[in-house]
């Protein structure tokens, strides 16, 4: 409640300053502020960012944390890099190491509690590493999507393609070197479920991989975030 009040005060001061400048009708600003009192934090933050962008000649000067306000990236240990490298706020990331698609009830509840307007899914790698086939992969991923739709009906869902591993990856990770069949299956799931599919193959580059050929460097997360933001028009 205190956070909401602080944001409302900041927003009110900003709008009053903006709409009390010479030549501007203040009635619109006052009405807008009153309406904002019933909005959630994410909506207020987004509107402030949009107004600041307009004042900067239309140039979008927001960082990734601002763009992803009111959204959640739900994924595995790779997704945790968004918070480890301070690219996104902790409230925008729900991650689980060794995330099996059929064992994410706690994470779904966590996402539900955040009430996001957009959910980005970045899952599937651990399912492939566990040796599952594409049929089981499709069943489990579809079930997860349907659960999210049921629990958070107002959220828009986007599914990221599965990132491959480099040829240098050893052991079980080698099974990630060819994920094309799984990504084709993901795209079909998205078509049937009428949700967004994000093809990340264009941003995968060997320079962004850690020495293990599986995980990613700090630089990659800004590139990935920007790609998701572009596709989802954040």
Tell me the layout of helices and strands.
Layout: H1 2-19, H2 26-36, H3 41-55, H4 64-67, E1 71-75, H5 81-84, E2 93-95, H6 105-114, E3 118-122, H7 125-129, H8 134-151, E4 156-160, H9 180-193, E5 196-198, H10 218-232
Parallel strand pairs: 1-2, 1-3, 3-4, 4-5
Please state how the strands of the largest beta sheet are arranged side by side: 2-1-3-4-5
How would you state the average pLDDT, rounded?
A: 82
Q: Number of helical segments?
A: 10
Q: Strand share of the residues? A: 5-15%
How many β-strand runs? Answer: 5
Shape: globular
Distance between the termini: 26 Å
Strand pairing plus helix content: what structural class? alpha/beta
User: What Rg is obtained from the alpha carbons, in whole angstroms?
Assistant: 20 Å
Largest sheet properties: 5 strands, parallel
The succession of helices and strands, N to C, reads: HHHHEHEHEHHEHEH
Helicity level:
40-55%
